[in-house]
Amino acid sequence: MAIKVYKPTTPARRKTSIVSFSDLTNKKPEKKLTIHKKQHAGRNKSGRITVRHRGGGVKQRIRLVDFKRRKFDAQAKVIAIEYDPNRSARLALIQYEDDEKAYILAAAGMKEGSRVISSLEKIEIKLGNRMPLEFIQPGTMVYNVELQPGKGGVMARSAGSGVAIQAVEGKFAQLKMPSTEIRLVKKECTASIGQVSNAEHMLMRIGKAGRNRRKGIRPTVRGKVMNPCDHPHGGGEGRQPIGLKYPKTPWGKHALGVKTRKKKKWSNKMIIQRRKKKRK
Q1: Phi, psi of 96 (to 5 degrees)
Q2: I want to staple 182 with a disulfide (CB 3.0 to 4.6 A). Which of 41, 74, 262, 272 is the partner?
Q3: CA-to-CA distance for 132 and 171, rounded, in angstroms?
Q4: Facing residues of 34 across strands?
Q5: CATH number reported for the structural domain that contains residue 242 in this entry
Q6: Domain count of the chain?
Q7: pLDDT digits (tens, 9 = 90+) for 198-208
Q8: CA dihedral of residues 27, 84, 275, 129 (deg, nearest 10)
């Protein structure tokens, strides 16, 4: 995979780049493993907008990804590497020996024809194989990691992300997250070997507003250009500063530097070291 940069034929093309699709298999998605994605435009079940700047976008079909991989000790063959419009990572279409098919998150370097297996016992440390953390040696990179045994992978699922196993002691495995946070996870939780595919996704430049609109993202307007009745930063003649001690959200709360994690959250005891702040 590589970043494809367009020739600057127009102002928008000059700043646009995409991730090459050369690694994908030339086939249509498995229809039985897809469902229609409903349009909610950021609204909850009551019809109120709970997520701003959402709406529109092209029609999509959600791929049903198997994050649990509970079909143990059954070898599967990777028959295709596919694009997924709902996530940044690539998907691998696997086929078991009984002809059952499933989508899984593709690991970086996984190719068509590879063999993968999921087990609750110790198996070969190979790209795409899945097993409990207690059987994976320290220093190995894993992805799609469970937080609770049997609940399915929830951590390290976006393009290029991976978790490093630092140690396995007692009932827990010590993991270093992509955010540099170090936390404990039960050693019975399963994880897949490798890193998530399509790491170049973060280097892609959107280039123009039209691409964001096709993704279902609507324009974001700055608060300081609004009226005082619409935003705390609004009002004033011409280009004025916000005139406040600290930035505020549209609802008057602190907008920057506020910890949103609950102080008494049950999982605080599982975190050994919080993530480090990025220096600008």
Answers
A1: -80, 175
A2: 272
A3: 12
A4: 63
A5: 4.10.950.10
A6: 2
A7: 999 999 999 89
A8: -40
